[in-house]
Write a structure and sequence with these properties.
Purple Acid Phosphatase, chain A, domain 2; 24% strand; alpha/beta; 377 residues
Length: 377
């Protein structure tokens, strides 16, 4: 049985105030083309379908069109909600459209029921677990002792009654300890949302979403497929791809990737204004890519952004790196990820009191920050 693993579409996302809808429409078309070539049995979409809990009408229409085209191909589709999604919106009409082969994760209530697919080697059970937090698990399983994300996920997975002799696939959206991160991801303070890879030992393949760089964690069969598009300049060096998973008999599995070609690449350029505007240096290059340019001129170039956009229309970000910026301590590349509040508070406390937070104080502050974040969301 062949699966294609996809995640983190972030439909409707804007990057540096540039709408990515046209790029997303293009890459979904590329994915459909590759599906026609590969002819998989199922598509796994591991969360963050949208970039916002209340997505735009254009983003919803784009996903609706994608699902319709998948259903026309008689493809089994398994899609779950991620931390950017509203689980209620993703689950809407799921029971009604289930018969079309499109399976949308219900709002998690403490129970897990698989969908069983059949091939020459027997049944393959596909389990869907949307993004969950400890607060969700405490509400659904009040008798469970939940002190961390790891406890929460362990308790949730215990509800899946696995037969170890069968092939089992899990589709979920979590941050696994050891995964390499990017600036465009939202990770909880201090990495407190990390879970241990050993929680997935019972599954033949775990299709993960949440981390934007394609990678396996701990074992080849526990894998993030990454985003189909680059969503920050920290991903400029990534090669975006689809992950193709083929299961034969129990224990026999192969994993490979297929590169994805975007409408616009995302690149970083560095040099003086004269170098970057010299025709011999940009002729023949993809000048319409999304760009972050760092100018090395010692003097600021008046209206540099406007002038450079005459040549590079999709210039997203402009910085200077010269003696002035270095001596003044000005950051030339401001991180896009929010600051680690727990670390900042710990540094502030140490400066004010001459000693670090105690373990009890550290745990209290971490719990307080997480509660504030959960209430805001």
């Amino acid at each position: 049985m062949k699966f294609i693993h996809l995640s983190d579409l972030h439909l409707g996302k804007r990057v540096n105030e540039f709408s990515m809808l046209d790029d997303q429409r293009h890459i979904l078309g590329e994915i459909l083309r590759l599906i026609d070539e590969e002819r998989p049995d199922a598509l796994l979409i591991a969360g963050d379908i949208y970039d916002k809990a209340v997505p735009s009408a254009e983003a919803v229409g784009l996903f609706d069109d994608f699902l319709c085209k998948l259903a026309e191909r008689r493809l089994q589709v398994f899609a779950i909600s991620g931390n950017h999604d509203s689980p209620e919106r993703i689950a809407f009409a799921s029971r009604l459209i289930d018969g079309s082969g499109v399976h949308l994760s219900p709002v998690w209530n403490g129970h897990m029921e698989p969908v069983t697919l059949q091939d020459a080697y027997g049944g393959v059970k596909v389990w869907m677990l949307p993004f969950i937090k400890p607060v969700h698990v405490r509400q659904a399983l009040p008798d469970a002792e939940i002190a961390s994300y790891n406890d929460a996920l362990a308790a949730a997975l215990e509800q899946a009654k696995l037969n170890p002799d069968e092939r089992n696939i899990l589709v979920t959206h979590q941050f696994v300890t050891g995964a390499s991160r990017c600036d465009s991801e939202e990770i909880s303070v201090g990495g407190s949302d990390a879970v241990d890879v050993s929680l997935f030992d019972a599954f033949d393949y775990t299709a993960l979403g949440h981390i934007h760089g394609a990678q396996s964690v701990g074992r080849d069969v526990v894998r993030y497929c990454g985003t189909p598009l680059k969503y920050s300049f920290s991903e400029a060096s990534h090669e975006k791809s689809l992950t193709v998973v083929e299961l034969l008999e129990k224990g026999n599995i192969t994993i490979r990737t297929i590169p994805l070609k975007p409408l616009h690449d995302m690149r970083e350029l560095r040099g003086s204004y004269m170098e970057l505007t010299a025709r011999e240096n940009y002729a023949g290059t993809a000048v319409d890519d999304y760009l972050h340019i760092t100018l090395t001129d010692e003097e600021d170039v008046p209206n540099a952004m406007g002038k450079l956009r005459v040549i590079y229309p999709n210039l997203m970000k402009l910085d200077y790196d010269n003696l002035r910026t270095r001596s003044s301590g000005v950051r030339t590349d401001t991180p896009e990820r929010p600051a680690d509040l727990l670390t900042l508070f710990g540094d502030f406390y140490r400066q004010m009191n001459g000693q670090p937070l105690s373990d009890e104080q550290h745990d209290y502050v971490r719990t307080l920050i997480e509660k504030i974040w959960e209430d805001e969301q």
